[in-house]
Amino acid sequence: MSDETLQSLLDLAKKVAVEAGEEVLSIYDSGEFDAFQKNDDSPVTSADYKANDIITERLQAATPDIPILSEENKHASLSERKNWSRYWLIDPIDGTQEFIARSGDFAINIALIENNTPVIGVIYWPPGQSLYYASKDQGAYKVSPEKECRIQVRKLEDPGSSVVKIAISRRQSREKIFSKLSETRTYQTLPLGSCSLKSCFIAEGKADVFMRIGITGEWDTGASQCIVEEAGGRILGANFEPLTYNQRHTLENPDFVVMGDQRVAWHDIVQYTKD
């Protein structure tokens, strides 16, 4: 893909994410939405469906030759998907439970996957009026009401001993997370809702690590992976195996870990063993 094409698709994704996000924020502020349980017992709302409609309609109109894989659409089988060299990967609202709980920790995720690798990542946080974005080999950026700037992971003063800032899910057991982290380091916790916002906070240096234990889909990490890695970090499975995109029948991720400063010996800190 040429740099010009990549930039054009990035600009499209940014525009669409903000448009969907502003509609979601309007629904959030009004409090007028319906909530449902999906077959896997995860929550979904009428706001998720509205965001999904906006995103898929805009992307289909602008890029009719690029398939779309969204959490809220019927998923194509691997036999069909394996022929996709490029596709959009969408999570219309990451953090639906936080949307319902009114914590404000939810975001719009749009990624472009090419040859099984995220090459564009766009995450819009409507309540924070913040747009995070990246494209392959072009760096990661944040746009807020104050400014637009390039972002990078935090460099610890001493990678071997400095306090590690860990982003923690509001609704996940802290004991379970800390049981999988080395006791030789000191941690400072940062409670947050959606997976993508935790990843963005690591990308901009507000946190250093985040471990996700529990079911997620590829749409939960596609945009985040591009942003975090362009900011100097990594996202890997919790046993430090690479995440995959569009290569398996299931679209579920393994448990995973998002890491900032790559000078840190994360293998020594994250001591994950599956329960």
Would you mind describing this structure in some detail?
- This protein has 275 residues and is of the alpha+beta class.
- The protein has helices at 3-30, 46-62, 78-81, 96-101, 174-178, 195-203, 222-230, 266-269, and strands at residues 35-37, 43-45, 68-70, 86-94, 107-114, 117-125, 130-135, 140-143, 148-151, 164-169, 187-192, 209-212, 234-237, 256-259.
- The strands form four sheets. Strands 3-4-5-6-7-8-9 form a seven-stranded mixed beta sheet, with helices on both faces. It has a three-stranded antiparallel beta sheet with strand order 12-14-13, with helices on one face. A two-stranded antiparallel sheet has the order 1-2.
- Strand 7 (130-135) and strand 8 (140-143) form a beta hairpin.
- The radius of gyration is 18 Å and the shape is globular.
Quick summary:
The chain is an alpha+beta fold. Helix content is 30%, strand content 27%. The longest helix is centred in the N-terminal third of the chain and has 28 residues, at 3-30.
Helical proportion?
25-40%
Radius of gyration equals: 18 Å
Here the CATH topology of the largest domain equals Fructose-1,6-Bisphosphatase, Chain A, domain 1
Distance between the termini: 42 Å
Basic shape: globular
Mean pLDDT: 94
Query: Which quaternary structure do these chains form?
Result: single chain
Strand content: 25-35%
- Along the chain, the helix and strand elements come as HEEHEHEHEEEEEEHEHEHEEH
Task: Catalogue the unreliable spans.
Answer: none
Q: Structural class, please?
A: alpha+beta
The counted number of beta strands is 14
Strand order of the largest sheet: 3-4-5-6-7-8-9
List the total number of helices.
8
